[in-house]
Design a protein that fits this description.
alpha/beta; Rossmann fold; rod-shaped
Length: 270
């Protein structure tokens, strides 16, 4: 047994005391480890949340950028197509002004007005004559006319090729619309529910205009169906004197350049 300097004896710590301190230290060490583990888990969870938030933001940015890119590309493609169509029309007008009759395609506003007079529920094909690059064709499809019901009669080989690419389910016929029933021979299995015309009728003498409409009502259209024609003029493009036709005319489509009106002709049932 040890003695102190004063001669008093010093007692060594008992086993219980030593084991008690060891147990406390072990518990403290265990608590520290648990706390450290919880802290590490919390840090890892926070990192995951930050990463998820960053990924979500990046994904939204990518999505928004992708949509914006698609819109820009679509607008660019539409502008390119529009300018391309204008160039095609101008070239066609220069090559043959008597047949083209316009230096630019019909505007969407005029095309929609023309299509509005076609009943999509009326049975039978819809014949479009002089479709050019297809603005009225697009409006007819938007109106609810199934593309497969459309018969497009176009004189220009270049426009016919373009129409076949743009409207692959439509029937595109390269031929003379002024000889309509002859051009449609073998293609028209039933009477048409409408004829929609963008022909420059005023480039033809009155007798030829009358002959075209008589041919359409006599051999192409079902009784009561409309013959729809636009014009830049203030008078009817189809001579109406003694024609027996009923006609209605739209107001001016001022957003078309130049402003135009739509005439709708019908012949009653016999």
């Amino acid at each position: 047994m040890a003695h102190s300097a004063s001669g008093q004896r010093l007692r060594a710590p008992s086993l219980a005391t030593r084991f008690g301190r060891s147990s406390v230290a072990a518990r403290l060490e265990h608590e520290v480890r648990l706390t450290a583990a919880d802290l590490a888990d919390s840090v890892a969870e926070a990192k995951l949340r930050v990463a998820a938030a960053r990924y979500k933001v990046e994904d939204e940015v990518r999505s928004t950028a992708g949509k914006l890119k698609s819109r820009v590309r679509k607008a660019a493609d539409e502008a390119k197509a529009r300018f391309g169509d204008d160039a095609r029309f101008l070239k066609s007008w220069i090559d043959s002004p008597g047949r083209t009759g316009a230096v630019a395609p019909s505007s969407p506003f005029l095309a929609r007005r023309m299509a509005s007079y076609v009943d999509p529920l009326a049975p039978g094909p819809v014949v479009e004559i002089g479709p050019g690059t297809g603005p009225v064709t697009e409006a007819l499809i938007a109106r609810g006319i199934d593309e497969s019901r459309l018969i497009l009669v176009e004189y220009s080989p270049e426009f016919c090729e373009l129409l076949r690419r743009r409207f692959p389910r439509a029937t595109v016929i390269e031929g003379d619309a002024y000889a309509l029933s002859t051009t449609l021979a073998g293609q028209l299995t039933e009477r048409a529910s409408a004829v929609v015309s963008s022909l420059p009728l005023f480039n033809k003498p009155p007798a030829e205009r009358t002959a075209l409409v008589e041919d359409a009502f006599g051999k192409v259209l079902t009784p009561g169906a409309p013959f729809i024609q636009f014009t830049y003029a203030v008078i009817s493009p189809v001579p109406r004197k003694a024609s027996g036709l009923k006609a209605q005319v739209s107001d001016w489509v001022l957003r078309n350049i130049p402003p135009a009106r739509v005439w709708v002709y019908r012949r009653g049932r016999p």
